[in-house]
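tokens incoming
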């Protein structure tokens, strides 16, 4: 009789435990650096993130809504439907690099990042920003101001920040070996480093 009761308790407790487990949905809104441009599927940092979450038994699903070539304006226009469709609990914004490549005004990039952060928060999601830097040939002032705008938005919106997604790759010795022939997109061998830059910020943010 005792064994029966224990079995029944276990049977009823299982759904309750499943219901109590947090359901986290991480939406990654990015550009080619997150969209596995030029890579075999499953080798980019977002796919590696999914594997890391599973390995550490962190209950979370990842939706990669990244598009190669996307700008902050493109991400801003896509975000409302993505929030409605996926109902994420966490939104990672990795956009801005293409704004710089196209010479778009920094004020526009900043406004778009702020608008996306606010819209995601209004939908009930937490927000994290992934920063980018540009080479010094853009000019010292532009380079500094572009890098600083991510920190400015992060502070204003209370969002954690990965300062530079390509740290340890773009500034590594013989960095050209870590990039595809276009010298813009990292190789698959570099993407574990991208994840290593994101993970220390993302994990506590996700578990908070």
């Amino acid at each position: 009789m005792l064994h029966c009761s224990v079995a029944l308790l276990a049977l009823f407790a299982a759904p309750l435990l499943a219901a109590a487990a947090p359901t986290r949905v991480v939406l990654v809104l990015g550009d080619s650096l997150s969209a596995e441009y030029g890579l075999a599927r499953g080798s980019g940092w977002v796919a590696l993130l999914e594997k890391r979450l599973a390995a550490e038994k962190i209950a979370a699903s990842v939706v990669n809504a990244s598009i190669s070539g996307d700008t902050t304006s493109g991400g801003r226009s896509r975000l409302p439907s993505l929030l409605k469709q996926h109902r994420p609990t966490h939104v990672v914004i990795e956009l801005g690099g293409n704004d710089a490549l196209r010479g778009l005004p920094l004020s526009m990039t900043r406004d778009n990042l702020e608008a996306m952060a606010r819209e995601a928060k209004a939908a009930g999601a937490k927000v994290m920003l992934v920063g980018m830097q540009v080479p010094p040939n853009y000019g010292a002032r532009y380079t500094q101001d572009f890098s600083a705008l991510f920190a400015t938005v992060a502070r204003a919106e209370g969002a954690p920040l990965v300062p530079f997604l390509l740290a340890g790759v773009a500034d590594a010795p013989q960095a050209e070996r870590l990039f595809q022939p276009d010298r813009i997109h990292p190789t698959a061998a570099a993407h574990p480093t991208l994840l290593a830059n994101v993970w220390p910020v993302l994990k506590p943010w996700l578990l908070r």
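note: Residues 1-11, 13-20 have pLDDT under 50 and may be disordered.
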